[in-house]
């Protein structure tokens, strides 16, 4: 059978959360807002615009749209400097074998990410060719937990939502998959991602037989 395998990007395929964090921290510092790694958890899976709002809320700062736009551009420029040297070594452990296994089994693969920088990251890490569809922050209007990004991905792969499997590291993303009635697979911490139907610390913990069962089911 053909299933739709939909991958989130940040935190699932690559660990770009650390770069987002460093870039946001620079903005926060300028605004005298305390922004810790713990705060950064709130930003995972969340759009760029919403991320800035969360940081401003943390610091009780009100700002004009003009200023906000300026900081959004600044943040992205800073973030992009971290992507310049990115290569395949930045793929998270076990990702490549899973993509390869799915390809060999003729399974449709899509990206479902909130990031507007998704394509260059897939190119730099050399895995763009695995994806039959790429849906990212440029294609959606509603951010996770809204299921829009995953529903578009399944549609492009021409697979019904209930036959789609989503790999996610964020709570909002797991919720989006659940709302879409897709199989949600959390990649990361059990305590955080308890809403997911299956949870793995990372892809190296996922047996091939598990993926085979997903395809057969
Ligand atoms: P950008 P994902 C998300 O990617 C990140 O988790 C989130 O922290 C980030 O703010 C968002 O992309 C937007 O990214 O600024 O590059 O457009 O996890 O949905 O792949
Ligand atoms: Mg993510």
TrEMBL record:
One Pfam short name: Hydrolase
Keyword Isomerase: yes
Entry EC no(s): 5.4.2.6
One MF term in the entry's GO annotations: beta-phosphoglucomutase activity
SUPFAM superfamilies: HAD-like
Superkingdom, natural source: Bacteria
Keyword field: Carbohydrate metabolism, Isomerase, Magnesium, Metal-binding, Phosphoprotein
Essential cofactor(s): Mg(2+)
The reaction(s) this protein catalyses: beta-D-glucose 1-phosphate = beta-D-glucose 6-phosphate
Any coiled-coil regions, as ranges: none
Enzyme class: isomerase
PANTHER family the record matches: 6-PHOSPHOGLUCONATE PHOSPHATASE, HEXITOL PHOSPHATASE B
Family indicated by similarity: Belongs to the HAD-like hydrolase superfamily. CbbY/CbbZ/Gph/YieH family.
Protein name, UniProt field: Beta-phosphoglucomutase
Gene: pgmB
